[in-house]
Amino acid sequence: MSRFIESIRIANGLIENLSLHQERVNRTLLDYSAGTRIHLEEYIKTHALSDQMVYKCRVIYDLNEIQEVQYIPYQKRVVGSLAIARDNSIEYHHKYANRDHINRLFSNSGADDIIIVKNGCVTDASYANLVFCDGVSWYTSNTPLLKGVRREQLIRDGIIKEAAIREEDICDFSTVRLINAMIPWEEAVEVPVSRIVFPAP
What we know:
By secondary structure, the protein is α+β, with helices and mostly antiparallel strands. The protein has two domains: 4-73, 2-Layer Sandwich (D-amino Acid Aminotransferase, Chain A, domain 1), CATH 3.30.470.10; 82-197, D-amino Acid Aminotransferase, Chain A, domain 2, CATH 3.20.10.10. The chain contains three helices and 13 strands. The longest helix is centred in the first third of the chain and has 14 residues, at 18-31.
């Protein structure tokens, strides 16, 4: 049976974007026609956590129940370079616990992270959604592997917009930010497009 994860940011004792995480859990269960109802707020406890630290609350569940809840002190990854990884077979519509396919692409890249391109379209980095800046506005691909919670929040707040972004469009932008549930917009890793390595066609 498939297992899924939710990585939820807890900062200053507050659980961030819990309703959006719950929406994604609900969609996953619905897509698999599971009769189960999982309510995240019943399982996440913050009373023993330090208010001075940021935690990744990692919820592991299957179609029947929550299997484990972990609280991991969070450290942001350092990303200074990106490499294009082309793969037309990759699928990651739900936040599966099994990330072997993505990990293989990353391990072969030789860069700090990757930009996964599927059928010519930009999707995601190995652990984050991507947002590109043209000098004025910020755009995220309308073909992500996974619609992340932070991505959804920023779209709803009008900070970023969806757009069709193909591999050949990347050089039209100046920088790219990597965003996920653990990284607030103002703290997002930003990489100049000039630091992206493109493989031979």
